[in-house]
Write a structure and sequence with these properties.
By secondary structure, the chain is an all-alpha fold. The chain contains 12 helices and no strands. It is flat and about 95 Å long.
Length: 307
């Protein structure tokens, strides 16, 4: 047998690489084509970062569901409801977003490490272990970043709801006392109230009622989503008053007054907590600078006197 020439080996190697790339591209195209199109006619738009990377998120979430890895328990859905994302994202799509964020931050950390090493003149090339540690750190950072984002969204949404609740209850009370029923009063509060999380929740209650759900059931679903004592008390009072045939006006006015008092008490509590929270930056940042300014001239005088 005659040995193959150098050019023939290069051609066969290039052919094998080309066929491998074509096979990988075909497999990726087939896997993307198998992902069904999601019907989002009844859903809200997802957050901006998820919209920018929607196709890979949808692809990853589909195969996570096929493998049985996607979370579908009540706790995951409750967390999405409390964040106001249950009509935007599923738990599997949020997990896919976490995995994609981990991959992007891992690549970004490795690139930053490479750029820093290139900026240092005469530095030795890094080993694979260093890049692995950078990638692991980036993955942890990406995972924690999205988890903190979800936690902050839940906390911000709760604060916004508690802040706007008395105003919406005042509008509902005025509309009920003017002769409207509760559904009409909620519709007026959605039309006239300021935009925010509680307005979205009231709009969702109206949407559920128009879809055929009972009004009491829609209100209970809102209380279960929000898990706030003020919302639960309001929903319970309204449902009991309607079931007993009571006038809703005094009940709603009492609820509005109570929520306003609670909002004032929360503001007063935060005002009293402010001096305590200021102690740490005062001790760590301000006191050392004050001591340096005061004692530096004294120390210099002692040094000059000793010389």
């Amino acid at each position: 047998m005659t040995p193959l020439s150098h050019s023939t080996l290069i051609f066969l190697l290039a052919l094998a690489i080309g066929l491998s790339v074509a096979l990988i591209g075909w497999l990726l195209g087939r896997s993307v084509a198998e992902v069904p199109t999601e019907n989002r006619d009844y859903k809200d738009a997802p957050p901006l970062a998820f919209r920018l990377a929607w196709w890979p998120i949808q692809w990853i979430s589909y195969y996570l569901a096929l493998l049985g890895i996607a979370p579908s328990d009540d706790k995951s859905w409750l967390r999405m409801r409390r964040a106001g994302l249950d009509y935007m994202l599923t738990p599997s799509q949020f997990l896919a977003g976490c995995l994609l964020c981990m991959s992007v931050t891992a690549v970004l950390f490795c690139w930053l490490l490479y750029a820093l090493m290139q900026a240092r003149v005469g530095s030795a090339p890094l080993s694979t272990v260093a890049y692995g540690e950078a990638a692991l750190s980036g993955m942890v950072f990406g995972w924690v970043m999205l988890r903190f984002w979800l936690h902050d969204r839940i906390a911000l949404r709760q604060r916004e709801i508690l802040k706007s609740l008395p105003f919406f209850l005042d509008i509902v009370t005025l509309c009920v006392e003017a002769g409207l029923n509760l559904q009409g009063a909620l519709s007026q509060s959605v039309d006239k109230g300021p935009p925010g999380a509680f307005r979205d929740e009231c709009q969702r209650v109206l949407r559920d009622v128009r879809a055929g759900k009972a009004r009491a059931e829609a209100l209970r679903a809102m209380a279960e989503r929000l898990r706030e004592p003020g919302i639960t008390s309001f929903v319970t009072s309204v449902i009991q008053a309607e079931s007993m045939g009571m006038n809703l006006g005094p009940v709603l006015r009492a609820q509005a007054d109570q929520r306003r008092t609670e909002r004032f008490q929360r503001a007063e509590k935060k005002a009293l907590e402010a001096p305590v929270k200021l102690l740490l930056p005062l001790i760590v940042f301000i006191f050392p600078c004050t001591f340096i300014v005061l004692f530096f001239p004294i120390a210099m005088q002692f040094l000059h006197a000793g010389s």
